[in-house]
Amino acid sequence: MEYIKEAKEHDLDSLTELALALWPDNEFIDLRKEFKQLLNSDKDKVIVYLMHAQLIAFIHISVRSDYVEGSKDSPTGFIEGIYVKPEYRKKGISKNLIEKGESWLKTKGCSQIGSDIEQSNDTSYHFHKNVGFKEVNRLIAFIKEIE
Fold first, then answer.
1. Are 57 and 5 in contact (CB under 8 A)?
2. Rounded to 5, what percent of the chain is helix, strand, coil?
3. CA 42, CA 107: separation in Å to the nearest integer?
4. pLDDT tens readout for residues 28-67
5. Which pTM does this prediction carry?
């Protein structure tokens, strides 16, 4: 059985382990503390994907009121991080997480969602293009309309 849900405090350890795979330069304790704060934020949402009661993916979406590269409106949604365990990739999980995040962003008055990657990250570049983002600058920054 698989499903998507908003992250809760009892998910923090598994969520932090996934986040460390995405951001390996962080410390577990610091990252866990950061995620715990995000769970109570009005401008952040952490959504997790579970398969057989195991966390296998997450997305951290935020509402930014400052400038987001390529956006035309404020506030603008932003993908702060998205990660799917390698063995579960290319199965539509990240697309489902983004769609769930977009639904939440609409309730916050956002009509666009942005993201960025490091220029050398070809895998992430192709992922963003495949889920509907368009490149708006060579930073590399992305923007996608929320429909």
1. no
2. 35, 30, 35
3. 11
4. 999 999 999 999 999 999 999 999 999 999 999 999 998 8
5. 0.86
- CA-CA distance, 87 to 17, in Å (whole number)? 16
Radius of gyration of the chain (CA): 15
Burial of 27 (0-12, 13-18, 19+ CB in 10 A): exposed
Tell me the HSE value of 15 on the side-chain side, using a 13 A CA sphere. 27
DSSP state of 90: S
Going by DSSP bridges, is the β-strand pair 141-145/112-116 parallel, antiparallel, or unpaired?
antiparallel
Structure tokens at 100: 């769930």
List beta partners, residue 144: 113
